[in-house]
Amino acid sequence: MWEEQLKTGKRGKPRIYSDIAIETALTVQQVFGLPLRQTEGFLSDILKKIGSDQKAPDFSTLSIRGKDLSVTIRTRLIKEESLHIAVDSTGVKIYGEGEWKVRQHGWSKHRTWKKLHIGIDESTQDILLGEVTGNDMSDGDMLEPLLKQLPETTKIDQVSMDGAYDKRKCYEVLQQRNIKNIAIPPQRNAKIWQHGNTKAEPLSRDENLRQIRKVGRKQWKEEINYHRRSLVETAMFRLKTIFTDKVRARTFSNQRIQLLLRCKALNRMTALGMPMTYVVA
Question: What DSSP string runs through 164-214?
Answer without folding.
Answer: GG-SHHHHHHHHHTT--EEE-PPPTT---SS-TTSSSPPPHHHHHHHHHHH
